[in-house]
Specification:
The structure holds 2 protein chains of 2 kinds. Chain A is mainly α. Chain A is built from 5 helices and no strands. Classes of the chains: A mainly alpha, B mainly alpha.
């Protein structure tokens, strides 16, 4: 059965793959390709954040009444990750591979740590509290994340 | 309610990371000072002192320091007063390691006795604080199970160590050698090995973007390791030598399986760049597999242990070749990342934090790693050519670890400079807004 945890975790893995593609392009010295690949990664991440901030988190908050809890921390980390992605893309635009790799290193750990918290704590909490809403929420997440 | 952001203050783990390399330097200097004699057997006072300077002074320091940092993040377990616990544990471990080394070298019973007492109290304090934090934390991941099992083994290795130290100090009629093997088994297999695996489940996929560890084997590894150690312990008490060997073989094979699996996962990593952490892990995994192969051979064919250098090679390969590289590799990620995270938080989203490579750069880590690899090769060669190589090996080991200390201290110094800079910029922004 599809759960919020399995569905959203799969989307995290898809973003990871796109990130890895960008980094591989940089290590081959192809910064143009890297910029394209990183662009894909960034839009996938932004779509993921948006679907969480517009659909998943508000539903969770409405159901549990927890507004200042984990969802708030996740929103703050989304902000940090948006900033890190901006810095990385700027480094690629100025063709500074060294600077990009430094940004990417920070980004990857921050992103993985953030994903881990969501996958191990927040999504299971969502699955637990949103049993009745599950089919509708999943359907909305699917449309939001599959849009181009 | 889950508390997400209860990471302890930066100073709590840092004090451990800054003291630990100094103990490895001390161990290297001791080897250089004692010279060839230290390689005569694992039971020489010098070898025992150097081993414990490394295992307690370096390994245990970093492991407990990292746990204070990591427990809230991976297990949602929040220590009460983490800074106070960190201070006491750091001082206790340092004093205990020094007294124990001095006790081995001098043979003075009071030194061994006081080392045992201090280490017992320190670990008891740490265990009390962590167990209180872990009460009520459900075992929902192999990492949480691994941490809980490792803490159980920590009690085991320290308990046995105290019995051994007091037995040695006051001449109790104990089977010291068999008990020392068991003590090492609980320490390296049950505590360090299980804790390493529990952390690897999280950090290997995270740092290298590898596929995750297969769920079934990650749940079972800690259980299997503990069962083998319990079997070994019971067999020793009941005097069943064949079962003792069976327990050793089981533990060794489990370790080889874990290391082999990790190597395979790292082969599938999606990150293109091999960084210092990755290379350190490759070094540690390869050496651990060799070491555990030596151990499993002894379990099947005990006479191998009498071959010159066999047991020493096992110890050097597993501790200096396996665990220290894993730990150093992780320090090289943890210290820059924590620096970045604390800088980021202090900037309050108004002033950006510098990237991790501005705190500690890849070339700095890489050069230190090469120095460490040279020191390790010299140490291994010194087992077979002690007259020629014992002193250079000890010195090289001291230099490589001194360099590690320098790298970490430089990272902290840069962190402080950036922190002052960010705070100044933030004050300007807040004043003008």
């Amino acid at each position: 059965m599809t759960t919020i945890r399995s569905f959203m975790t799969e989307d995290h893995r898809r973003c990871d793959d796109l990130f890895a593609e960008a980094e591989q392009a940089v290590s081959k010295g192809n910064l143009d390709l890297a910029l394209v690949a990183f662009g894909h990664f960034r839009s996938a991440m932004l779509a993921h954040f948006d679907s969480e901030e517009k659909t998943l988190f508000p539903t969770f908050e409405a159901k549990t009444g927890m507004r200042m809890g984990p969802t708030q921390v996740m929103r703050m980390e989304h902000e940090q990750l948006r900033g890190l992605m901006d810095d990385a893309i700027n480094a690629l635009k100025t063709a500074d591979a060294e600077d990009y790799l430094g940004q990417a290193d920070t980004l990857v750990i921050m992103m993985q740590q953030h994903n881990m918290k969501e996958e191990n704590m927040l999504y299971p909490m969502c699955d637990q509290h949103l049993t009745a809403e599950l089919p509708a929420v999943l359907e909305r997440l699917e449309t939001e994340l599959c849009e181009p | 309610m889950l508390a997400f952001e209860n990471a302890p203050p930066f100073a709590a783990p840092l004090r451990f990371f800054l003291t630990a390399p100094l103990f490895a330097v001390l161990a290297g200097l001791l080897v250089a000072f004692e010279g060839p004699d230290i390689f005569a057997s694992r039971w020489t006072p010098g070898a025992l002192a150097a081993t414990h300077l490394i295992t307690i002074g370096f390994m245990l320091q970093v492991m407990l320091g990292a746990l204070i940092q990591i427990l809230p993040v991976v297990a949602g377990a929040n220590l009460k007063r983490p800074l106070a616990v960190a201070r006491l544990v750091n001082v206790g471990l340092s004093a205990g390691a020094l007294l124990l080394a001095a006790g081995f070298l001098s043979g003075i019973p009071a030194l061994l006795g006081s080392a045992a007492l201090i280490l017992a109290l320190t670990v008891l304090l740490f265990l009390t604080a962590t167990i209180m934090a872990l009460i009520g934390v459900p075992t929902t991941s192999p990492t949480i199970r691994g941490i809980k099992f490792a803490l159980f083994s920590l009690a085991g290795v320290v308990g046995l160590g105290i019995v051994l130290a007091l037995g040695l100090a006051y001449g109790w009629p104990l089977p010291l050698m068999a008990l020392a093997d068991l003590h090492a088994g609980w320490g390296l297999g049950g505590w360090a090995g299980v804790l390493l695996a529990a952390m690897a489940y999280v950090v290997v996929p995270m740092f290298q973007l590898t596929p995750g560890y297969p769920a079934r084997s990650s749940w079972w590894f800690p259980v299997f390791m503990l069962l083998m150690l319990l079997l070994w312990s019971v067999a020793l008490i009941a005097d069943w030598p064949l079962l003792v060997r069976f327990g050793q073989l089981g533990a060794a094979l489990a370790g080889i399986a874990f290391a082999g699996l990790t190597l395979r996962l790292q082969g599938k990593r999606r990150r293109a760049r091999p960084d210092a952490t990755y290379r350190y892990w490759q070094l540690g995994l390869t050496n651990s597999i060799f070491a555990l192969f030596l151990l499993s051979t002894v379990a099947v064919w005990p006479a191998a242990a009498d071959i010159d250098g066999w047991t020493l090679a096992f110890g050097v390969l597993l501790v200096a070749g396996g665990f220290l590289p894993f730990i150093t590799g992780m320090l090289y990620k943890i210290v820059p990342f924590l620096s970045w995270m604390h800088l980021q938080n202090s900037g309050q989203a108004k002033v950006p934090a510098p990237a991790m490579n501005k705190i500690l750069s890849e070339p700095e880590m890489h050069r230190q790693m090469l120095a460490y690899a040279v020191a390790l090769a010299l140490l291994l060669a010194a087992i077979f050519f002690p007259v020629w190589l014992a002193r250079p090996a000890g010195l090289a080991f001291a230099i490589a670890n001194g360099w590690l200390w320098w790298n970490i201290a430089s990272a902290i110094r840069r962190y402080r400079l950036h922190l002052a800079d960010i705070e100044a910029k933030l004050a300007v922004k807040l004043a003008t807004s």
